[in-house]
């Protein structure tokens, strides 16, 4: 059973969309590009209609990692599972947050993911790697998420943020 809680509500309007992600644009966000984690090519992509209004915080349930080589392996496994077992075009999430504090680019800010029914085309999905019903995200993971969301609001995308949803209790409004 998936539990969903509304954890924050705020109304913000921000900047312009950027094609791709320039690592220099997002202060405090350490990205691992799709090339760096050796992503497979997506079967197809669908542009994310902007502005988006939601950020969905999820957890992968499996794939907890505390070092970059293990996180890379787990992101690859998750992509393989989504594409080969689920039949999806690519990895489901916009971004994944590793226990190493790095942000792994999934479909990114510019493409529709497959993370939450009815929200895929109106939000971005940020997945914490691991099962946070039984453990707590690290401070590194929380800070990486905060910095990623703030970057999306201030510098990367046009976003009218209405709601942040989380699928596990550990994620709190204190991110902002």
From TrEMBL:
Record carries keyword Signal: yes
Signal sequence annotation: 1-20
InterPro entries found in the cross-reference section: Amidase/PGRP_sf, Amidase_domain, PGRP, PGRP_domain_met/bac
An individual GO BP term: peptidoglycan catabolic process
Provenance organism: Trichonephila inaurata madagascariensis
SMART domains linked: Ami_2, PGRP
Residues of the N-acetylmuramoyl-L-alanine amidase domain: 40-175
Peptidoglycan recognition protein family domain residues: 29-164
Protein name, as recorded: Peptidoglycan-recognition protein LE
Keywords: Signal
One MF term in the entry's GO annotations: zinc ion binding
Pfam families for the chain: Amidase_2
UniProt similarity note: Belongs to the N-acetylmuramoyl-L-alanine amidase 2 family.
């Amino acid at each position: 059973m998936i539990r969903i809680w509304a954890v924050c509500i705020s109304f913000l309007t921000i900047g312009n969309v950027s094609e791709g992600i320039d690592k220099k644009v997002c202060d405090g966000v350490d990205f691992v590009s799709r090339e760096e984690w050796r992503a497979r090519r997506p079967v197809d992509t669908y542009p994310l209609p902007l502005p988006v209004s939601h950020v969905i915080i999820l957890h992968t349930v499996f794939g907890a990692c505390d070092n970059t080589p293990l996180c890379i392996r787990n992101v690859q496994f998750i992509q393989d599972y989504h594409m080969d077992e689920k039949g999806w075009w690519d990895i489901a999430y916009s971004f994944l947050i590793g226990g190493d504090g790095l942000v792994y680019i999934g479909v990114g800010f510019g493409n529709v993911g497959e993370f939450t029914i009815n929200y895929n085309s109106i939000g971005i999905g940020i997945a914490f790697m691991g099962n946070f019903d039984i453990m707590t995200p690290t401070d590194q993971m929380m800070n990486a998420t905060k910095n990623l969301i703030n970057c999306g609001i201030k510098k990367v995308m046009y976003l009218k943020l209405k709601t942040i949803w989380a699928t596990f209790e550990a994620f709190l409004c204190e991110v902002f």
